[in-house]
Specification:
Elements lengths: L5 H23 L6 E2 L5 E2 L1 H17 L4 E4 L12 H12 L7 H8 L9 E9 L1 H5 L5 E8 L2 E13 L9 E8 L3 E5 L7 E2 L13 E3 L8 H10 L7 E2 L4 H7 L5 E4 L16 H9 L3 E3 L20 E4 L4 H9 L1
Parallel strand pairs: 3-4, 10-11, 10-12
Antiparallel strand pairs: 1-2, 4-5, 5-6, 6-7, 7-8, 8-9, 12-14, 13-14
Helix pairs in contact: 1-2, 2-3, 2-4, 7-8
Bound molecules: adenosine monophosphate (AMP) and magnesium ion (MG).
């Protein structure tokens, strides 16, 4: 696969459109309202609209490919949610002018639950809690072939383009192809630059990045590990897979995700790591779980063979794994 292949061109266009829809909704602030799913996690009209666009555009070009995505339209089809479905359809309309409410639901439901030899996995809004706080969030899409992530795309509409100008331009599109490196562009797909991880060799100079939500990661454990490694810089708390982008461009040296004590047996979802992990790896980084095992995207929706996640600049990976064992 190269950067002009149908997969890459289709996926980039789909993510750019989904990301524009999310930004529109964020701007109109209707995204401030959310529905609680059965697992108590929030979902917004932006999650539904983004998934509808991504699934429709991928299925159009690859009718035989499996898509594994976070949402389904069950809640949206409830008669008492008809106003919400209407809002979702209106936003999707701006990108797919023929869209009807019925079609929007059916596009969302292109998503299936079972892994095949080749499949797409997507999170229409990764970090929904960040989106609701007007903080970081990402639109994440990856292609997995025979258990290997071969293409990863992340749109991070709220992420600053340059760490030295945190109040400057925002909006990053990360793209990685297996064996071909990672790049960052703006959200129009322009201003391309190649990414590489930090060259830091001394753990005490490292910057750690972690979730904002204390229920998603064990902050206290992370803090103890930072002390063990003599890391003095405060950790960079950020929602979504934007953390992988931060590691890929060398601003974060390591991204740690030890399951939170509120859910110590938590198993990660494939759509929360497929796109991000290839972006960090192709920029020269290394990604495993916190025990050092490679991330396994071939077991199903849940990464049942892994425990937490560790992404580093590669150089520090073994040192951090060793400290994690102590
Ligand atoms: P982050 O923004 O890095 O905190 O990660 C957001 C993702 O965390 C969401 O997409 C959820 O799928 C995932 N998540 C939900 N519950 C948990 C949990 N208990 N532990 C770890 N991750 C979780
Ligand atoms: Mg997610």
């Amino acid at each position: 696969m190269d950067q002009n292949s149908l997969e890459v061109v289709t996926a980039i266009q789909a993510v750019i459109k989904a990301s524009a829809l999310c930004q529109e909704i964020r701007k109109d602030l209707v995204g401030g309202e959310s529905i609680l799913k059965s697992d108590r996690s929030p979902v917004t009209i932006a999650d539904y609209g983004s998934q509808a666009i991504l699934c429709k555009l991928i299925r159009e070009k690859f009718p035989h490919d499996t898509i594994i995505a976070e949402e389904d339209s069950k809640e949206l089809r409830r008669p008492d949610r008809s106003k919400i479905l209407e809002q979702v359809t209106n936003y999707v309309h701006a990108f797919i002018p023929t869209a009807s409410s019925k079609e929007v639901c059916s596009w969302i439901d292109f998503s299936s639950n079972s892994i095949t030899d080749r499949f797409w996995t997507l999170d229409p809004i990764d970090g929904t809690k960040g989106f609701l706080r007007a903080d970081q969030y990402a639109i994440a899409l990856a292609l997995v072939e025979k258990g290997v992530v071969t293409l990863g795309i992340l749109a991070c509409p709220n992420l600053y383009v340059d760490i030295h100008q945190p109040l400057g331009e925002k909006g990053c599109l990360f793209v990685a192809l297996k064996g071909r490196g990672s790049i960052q562009m703006d959200l129009r797909g322009l201003s391309k630059r190649t990414l590489s991880v930090s060259k830091i060799e001394n753990p005490s100079e490292a910057t750690m990045t972690e979730s904002v939500e204390p229920d998603h990661a064990d902050h206290l454990f992370h803090q103890r590990l930072a002390q063990k490694l003599n890391i003095s810089k405060p950790s960079l708390r950020m929602d979504s897979q934007a953390k992988y982008g931060i590691v890929a461009r060398g601003e974060g040296t390591l991204y740690l995700r030890v399951p939170s004590p509120s859910e110590p047996g938590y198993k990660e979802n494939i759509w929360d790591h497929a796109a991000g992990s290839i972006i960090a790896e192709e920029a020269g980084g290394r990604v495993t779980d916190v025990l050092g095992s490679p991330l396994d995207f071939s077991c199903g929706i849940k990464m049942v063979k892994n425990h937490g996640v560790l992404a580093t600049n590669g150089i520090l990976h073994e040192v951090v794994l060793k400290a994690l064992k102590m």
